[in-house]
Amino acid sequence: MMRSQFTSVRSYIGCLPMGADLYESLTTIAREENLRAGRITGIGAVTQAVVAYYDQTEKQYSSVKLDHGMEIVSLLGNISIKDGDPFVHAHITLADRDGKVYGGHLMPGTLVFVCEVFIDVFEGEDLVRTLSPETGLALWLPLAESTRS
Ligand code: ZN
């Protein structure tokens, strides 16, 4: 049984300004436009990045700063509601001059050199994050009961 159904209603397409904080910019757009369900995709380049890894045992994030320019191979994220406000969750894959790839959970401190972004907005009931005790993360409801083992 599907928990939620959404209709694609519009898209925002554009570049983020050089020097902008990537995560903060996406959050500002989501909150200013009151985007309550969305899909974020993007490509471009950063001058530095901060990405995080979630330790599943410790149930906490640890972050790493990558202090050099890299290509954004893939920016992929979503917008939903956490604590009553639009909330961005995004992951990023980055490549250096040798084609070596880094990535993780996008954190503040990732600075845009150029970033071409699509934000696809959906309408439906609010997509709300609630704390999942088993993961320690604020998650959506399961899509279907049958997916749980
Ligand atoms: Zn994440």
Summary, kept brief:
The chain is mainly β and about 150 residues long. The protein contains 1 helix and 9 strands, in the order E-H-E-E-E-E-E-E-E-E. The strands form 2 sheets. Strands 1, 2, 3, 4, 5, 6 and 7 form a 7-stranded antiparallel beta sheet that branches. A two-stranded antiparallel sheet has the order 8-9.
> How would you state the average pLDDT, rounded?
94
What series of H and E elements makes up the topology?
EHEEEEEEEE
The rough form would be described as globular
Q: Helix content range of the residues, please?
A: under 10%
Structural class: mainly beta
Portion of residues in beta strands equals: over 45%
Unreliable residue stretches: none
Major β-sheet profile: 7 strands, antiparallel
Query: C-alpha Rg, in Å?
Result: 16 Å
Give the total of beta strands: 9
Alpha-carbon distance between the two ends: 15 Å
Number of helices: 1
What hetero molecules are bound to the protein chains? zinc ion
List the helices and strands and how they pair.
Layout: E1 7-16, H1 22-32, E2 38-55, E3 60-66, E4 70-82, E5 85-95, E6 101-106, E7 111-123, E8 130-132, E9 137-139
Antiparallel strand pairs: 1-7, 2-3, 2-4, 2-6, 2-7, 4-5, 5-6, 8-9
The structure holds zinc ion.
Zinc ion is lined by residues 89, 91, 105.
Structural description of this entry:
With 149 residues, the protein is mostly beta strands. Helices cover 7% and strands 56% of the residues. A hairpin with a 2-residue loop joins strand 4 and strand 5 (85-95). The two termini are 15 Å apart. The mean pLDDT is 94. Zinc ion binds next to strand 5.
